[in-house]
Amino acid sequence: xxxxxxxVVLLSGGLDSATVMAISRDxxxxxxxLSFDYGQRHRFELDAARKVAATLGARQHLVLxxxxxxxxxxxxxxxxxxxxxxxxxxxxxxxxxxxxxxxxFLSYALAxxxxxxxxxxxxxxxxxxxxxxxxxxxxxxxxxxxLANLAxxxxxxxxxxxxxxxxxxxxxxxxxxxxxxxxxxxYSITHSCYDPDHQGLACGQCDSCILRHEGFVRAGxxxxxxxxxxx
Length: 231
Hints:
five-stranded parallel beta sheet, 35% helix, 11% strand
């Protein structure tokens, strides 16, 4: 019996990362899901991540804790900074950007991949329907893959070649949703809102909510998200 290739999949619990996990499963990888409790104000996404990992059959789901609130600098980790509710601002990098977040997350994924002897890491980065984050761009993904193969014992010794997969990179949100639907993904178990209420209901007004809802509308798919209110 042929052994499946292992893949570490970064799983936030949101729409994009869930779709990436569905893609990796469809491609036949043995999935090791990695999530982070980093002090984000939208920690409800971790409950969603657990549901997605279980539903899509992850071999293991690891949730690592770190305190990025001490660093601050983002509306997602510093409650003194309000989450914008005026729609995506394409003129610059918004305050919901978390300093170096994807670099940090991919570094942990790389460490776990090396221990697992996994050559594949999946991330839900997207540079089309996104909020302007610099660590969601093709140049960043390519640069990190180069780093991964320079900075790990297994790669330097020629035992593996790390690949960073970002299958959603050039897809629109509606294309992402249609891809997930084609793979049988239930988006009702995912969570994307940056500023949910105490029950986990989406605000319907932050960048993430707006991009998510517009994606469903353009895809012609009913939006299963439970909103407080909707713009």
